Amino acid sequence: MVMVIGLDQQLVKQIEDLCNARGVRLTSQRKRVFELICASPKASSAYELLEDLKLSEPQAKPPTVYRALDFLLEQGFIHRVESTNSYIQCCSCNAHKHHSHLLICDNCSNVIELQDDSLVALLTQNAEKHGFTINNHVIESHGICQSCASEKAN
Ligand SMILES: [Zn+2]
Ligand SMILES: [Zn+2]
Q1: Which of 15, 65, 73, 84 is most exposed, with the fewest beta carbons within 10 Å of its own?
Q2: Ligand 1 centroid vs 90 CA: distance in angstroms?
Q3: 93 annotated ligand-binding residue
Q4: Gene3D superfamilies recorded for this chain (predicted)?
């Protein structure tokens, strides 16, 4: 079970405000799925989210979760981790769409989101040399995080 203690209520408030400003509805299920994603330090799979959602909404089915995830992705509140087929909250949750570079720890599944426009610009430039137009990026690096690395050293 996911602990909801220590959840960043500020972040939830922020997306509520953004939804109001955009005139889109943050239903209780959408909000709950976002809270569950935020509550977990690691990336969550749709299956894990469904299991946790069932605790408060026993009638929840896979489409319930997928619809909520689609909404949250569309609004830019979360990111999909393609290589592990899981989801994390966006570190900025802000209005503008962005490409992020994800650092994924293979030991604890913690995900760090980095945003570096110069990296994306470089990739775009390199593709343009081949007359290629990029529509989407998936930039994910696998490895070991700082806390896992220091645990192993001890
Ligand atoms: Zn982001
Ligand atoms: Zn780790």
Answers
A1: 73
A2: 4
A3: no
A4: 3.30.1490.190, Winged helix-like DNA-binding domain superfamily/Winged helix DNA-binding domain
Ligand nearest to the CA of 142: 2
* pLDDT at residue number 152: 81
Total residue length of the chain = 154
Q: Phi and psi dihedrals of 125, rounded to 5? A: -60, -50
Domains of the chain: 9-153 (1.10.10.10)
Do the annotations mark residue 38 as ligand-binding? no
Query: Per-residue DSSP letters for 102-118?
Result: EEEETTT-BEEEE--HH
Distance CA 38, CA 23 (A): 23
Mean pLDDT of 123-147: 94
To which residue do tokens 């426009």 refer? 117
Q: Which residues contact 21 (CB under 8 A, 6 or more apart)?
A: none
Phi/psi class of residue 141: alpha, beta or left (left: φ > 0; alpha: ψ in -120 to 50)? beta
- In angstroms, rounded to a whole number, what is the distance separating the alpha carbons of residues 44 and 40? 7
Task: Considering every ligand atom shown, identify the ligand nearest to the alpha carbon of residue 146 and give its number.
Answer: 2
Tokens of 63: 């489409």
Angle at 27 between CA 24 and CA 28, to 5 degrees: 155
